[in-house]
Amino acid sequence: AEVGLFIKACQEGIGELILTPLKLTTNFRSDEKIVHWINNAFKDAFPANDDIPSGAIRYAASNAMRYYGENTGINLHPHYDEESFQLKLLEQLQIILNDENQKTIAILVRSRKNAKLILPWLRAAKIPYQAIDIESLELQPLIYDLLALIKALIYLGDRTAWFAILRAPWCGLMLSDLLILAKNKPKNCLWETISNFNLIDELSQDAKNRLTRIVPILSQAIEQRFRLSFRQWIEHTWIALGGPACIPTRSTFNDASSFFSLLETFSRAEGQFDIVEFERQLKEAYATAPNTENARVNIMTMHKSKGLEFDTVILPALHEAPRNDDKDILVWMDQPRSQQHENDILLAMCQPAGVDSDKLYKYIRAQEQQKTIFENTRILYVAATRAKQQLHLYFKIEHDAAHLLPNKRGFLSLLWPTIERTVFSLLPELLITQEQLAVKSDEYNHDNTAIINLHRLPNSWQLPSSINLSNKASSKNEGVTFDWQPDLERRMGIVLHRLFKFIGKQGLDAWQQLAANQQIELIQEFCLLAGITSQQFFKVKASILMCLDKMFHSQRGQWLLTQLKSEQSAFEFAIETIQQNEIKQFILDATFIDETNTRWIIDYKTAHSSHEHLSVFLNEQKQLYAPQLEKYAQLIAQMEQNPIKLALYFPLLDEWLEWQADKELMF
């Protein structure tokens, strides 16, 4: 964004329209200790004056309005190396997670590279987390295997892809057997060698058994090319090979669904399948983080955190500087100028080696670098002000105190004048002996040093007889939908679902402690996310508030909110299964296990009754939605043995329908 345009609009207006800038001076989010520290740290980090050409904006101090108690404020965590950083971070996270007041925790990183370093540590320490657009879908092992399957079936001569298929969990040949296949007639197409594996006596019996199962499947897949849509062709083959049986977690299932959804867009495209473009789009897709159920730890980039807030914010790797920008052959700058209607367009070319650099080229690069420094300052400010109660800063320092001055291009240099004395006072505490470090490191890394076993299907695995690979089109999420439902009413239902989830997780008391205007602002935010415009908001606001009021004053509504705050509850609980060769996903509005160990499956309905007799309307609703809930019960029954009850809840009507799940349908 060109910040200079914003400054120019503030100072000069837009055309003949004179603007009145409004400065927000009160911080309603952060504890007073954090607000005072940020004011002190950033007053000199920001430029002294606004400047249109460079996009400089001076700092505006904030007034504190919150006090959360004694266990709040800023915490500095200098470290000497990556290993000590890992120990400090994991130990601090355990302390924070044991604090009931720290309900939401965010690790905000400058780049995804920093997050990718931390994620394996969290997994090894068994800390659930939610990663927002961090891990590339392309880099997941499952996606590697699926991509190899596509390449092998399209290009039979792609030896690398065929070896990947043979090593994938659905086949799982040992390296010794792969080497035998590679040496057997190396100039031949590898598929030809695989097809005639029974002629290779050197192969182990295990390899022959596995190839006996998968070769007919792959042979049939090659014959079926162009007879199915591209997605069906690959997905059918993957299922027949046993791909879904190799999936270890639900998040991996979501990754598979994302892969096939992207593949379907290419299936509809005209012309030949473009593998290069498909891989390019895979690079831009992100994987689902594992163990996100009830995760309190969120990991995201600082850019993603704008507009959010967390009880605890952790900012790692503040010492790191971004890589140097490459010299562009051509540079240009759209430079706003004060008291002018039009901007200046500056353009310059990089001179060849041995020729003096063009002064204009140097100027444009210098201006862009200065803009980057100002933008980085604003990004760091945004990240720091996401914290409500605690802010933790992690950064690496050198052992030699004489070399403590941080890199000028790193975030740490912006804060150094404020924290330098404190860092020097902490240096004695950093002298941990190598023995102590090794003992602590082993506690977190024992999983990483374990022997890695080949993950593969059992030798005797067979496709379940219940799966019939047909030529039907792929399906999306299962559920009951009705075209006659008005769009605005449908969107209002989405908002209420999100509000129920928010209140259920935060607790009714937390909601009622919010001021009325804060409640309205939150409701309006949910409405905007659901696609309800500001004008439409005033039409639905009264209905939403009435619905919440009825739920809060209803004995059934209060009981439901209490149950949904328990650890054994879940909102928008997703279940994936395979039916007729297709991955299908079912979303349960809410589910929990009560004190009698009964599993409840709840469906919220925001419909109004247009019938003269309410009982007739409720009976019709049950007839419509009972099959859907019974299907949910069937899926849950395959996962646990608890008795299951089903219920429809109508908050606008304060009505409740419940019944025992049909046991004959379940088993």
Your description of this structure?
The chain has helices at 3-12, 32-42, 82-97, 112-124, 141-154, 159-167, 175-183, 190-195, 205-223, 230-241, 250-268, 275-283, 359-384, 411-426, 434-445, 487-506, 508-513, 516-529, 534-553, 555-563, 614-637, 663-666, and strands spanning 26-31, 63-66, 73-79, 105-109, 129-131, 297-301, 310-315, 330-335, 344-349, 387-396, 570-579, 582-593, 599-604, 644-650, 655-660. With 667 residues, it is α/β, with parallel strands linked by helices. It is globular, with a radius of gyration of 30 Å.
What does the secondary structure layout of this molecule look like, with pairings?
Elements: H1 3-12, E1 26-31, H2 32-42, E2 63-66, E3 73-79, H3 82-97, E4 105-109, H4 112-124, E5 129-131, H5 141-154, H6 159-167, H7 175-183, H8 190-195, H9 205-223, H10 230-241, H11 250-268, H12 275-283, E6 297-301, E7 310-315, E8 330-335, E9 344-349, H13 359-384, E10 387-396, H14 411-426, H15 434-445, H16 487-506, H17 508-513, H18 516-529, H19 534-553, H20 555-563, E11 570-579, E12 582-593, E13 599-604, H21 614-637, E14 644-650, E15 655-660, H22 663-666
Parallel strand pairs: 1-2, 3-10, 4-6, 4-7, 5-6, 7-10, 13-14
Antiparallel strand pairs: 8-9, 11-12, 12-13, 14-15
Helix pairs in contact: 3-15, 5-6, 9-10, 10-11, 16-18, 16-19, 18-19, 19-20
